[in-house]
Amino acid sequence: MSSLSVWLKRSWDGQSGPLGQLVLGLFLPVETLYRGAVLLRNRCYDLSVLPQSGSGIPIISVGNLAVGGAGKTPIASWLITHLTTMGHRPALVTRGYGSDEVLLYGVRNPGVPVVVQKSKIKGVAQAAREGATVAILDDGFQHRAARRDVDIVLLAAEQGAEGPLLPRGRFREPLRALSRADAIVITRKVATRDEACAVGRFALGEAPEAALGQIHLEGDAWTELEDDPSAEAHAGPPRGDLLAVCSIAEPDGFHEMVRSKANGVVECMAFPDHHPFSSRDVHRIIKRAGDRPVVITEKDAVKLRTFSKEMPRTYVLRLRVVWDSGQDAVMELIRRALDR
Q1: What CA–CA distance (Å, rounded) separates 257 from 294?
Q2: What is the secondary structure of 315-336 as a DSSP string?
């Protein structure tokens, strides 16, 4: 299944050649059926044919239109930190598709409950029982059975705002779904601010009353794999040539980020998203790295830390959330919802 996922993502990015594009064309009938099913399901929720359940605590959803790569994990973590400083007791509710994300939330937000539940409604109820005063739904935009107080939708500038739906493309819903959003946040890793602004203006056409924000996910802190996750970061990247290793949805963004910081040649080694690293994988990394240091993501660090004694000299590139614009508007929207 992971090989199929990798192939699909390469095809969506136009990297699988003429044969891949031909196969994607054959997916058109499947996409049409999927699009119809999404439209019917949303219509049923809009007409209250399908019920939505409320909660005893406010719910903030952080989701997106496309599959992976928009930065939900760092942004949800940033939001949890700021809600905590505001005096709230947040909890993160997730289906736990990848154990790496669950572990990373625990590293980024120690002491904050992380509830792993297939049912978002049951997850929120569990969070409330554990003392949470607000629940953050991870990847919650399509899970409409839970009535939320704020719907934040992330759009990656590198992916744009629309395209073919699954399985012919990476999008789960068409652009019109943004009409449900309370806030739209454009994220960027290697895209320019102007490119991100263009995506934001386009998105607002479907949700003119939504708050609009723009965030830059910047890699600016380096720690070693053996360090405590909360250890003080190094001033800059290791010198010389590097091997960048990752198992995330959009590896190109991470690789470009490392290249922009490094002072040597950067070679890339990508594994499928949420890949469970094994000793065999570690030996492959060792062989590929040679005498070069390795750079990995925070998400991969929580899995590879088990192999820290075997790995070559390995650095973790931490992501920092930097607001280009719209932070006040988005936070004011959240404050009003929590006050209600």
Answers
A1: 14
A2: EEEEEEEEEEE-HHHHHHHHHH
Task: Say what the pTM is.
Answer: 0.92
**Pairing verdict, β 134-138 and 90-94:** parallel
pLDDT digits over 79-132, tens only? 999 999 999 999 999 987 667 888 888 888 889 999 999 999 999 999 999 999
Distance (Å, rounded) from C-alpha 221 to C-alpha 207? 35
247 neighbors 6 (Cβ within 8 angstroms): no
Taking the CA atoms of residue 173, residue 178, residue 184 and residue 190 in that order, the dihedral angle to the nearest 10 degrees is: 40
Type of residue at 45: Y
59-218+322-339 and 219-319: identical CATH topology: yes
Report d(CA 230, CA 222) in Å as an integer. 11
Strands 211-224 and 114-116: unpaired
Q: Give the H/E segment covering residue 220.
A: strand 211-224
Whole-angstrom distance, CA of residue 86 vs CA of residue 19: 53
Minimal CA–CA distance to 162: which of 212, 191, 205?
205
Task: Note the pLDDT tens digit of each residue in 224-279.
Answer: 998 876 666 766 788 999 999 999 988 888 999 999 999 999 999 999 888 999 99
CATH of domain 219-319: 3.40.50
C-alpha span between 287 and 322 (Å, rounded): 36
Three-class SS of residue 298? helix
In the block, which residue shows the tokens 């594009």? 21
Instruction: Please state, as a whole number, how many other Cβ atoms lie within 10 Å of the Cβ of residue 294.
Output: 22
| Residue 92 CB burial class (10 angstroms; 0-12, 13-18, ≥19) | buried
Fold of the domain spanning 59-218+322-339: Rossmann fold (3.40.50)
Distance CA 300, CA 14 (A): 26
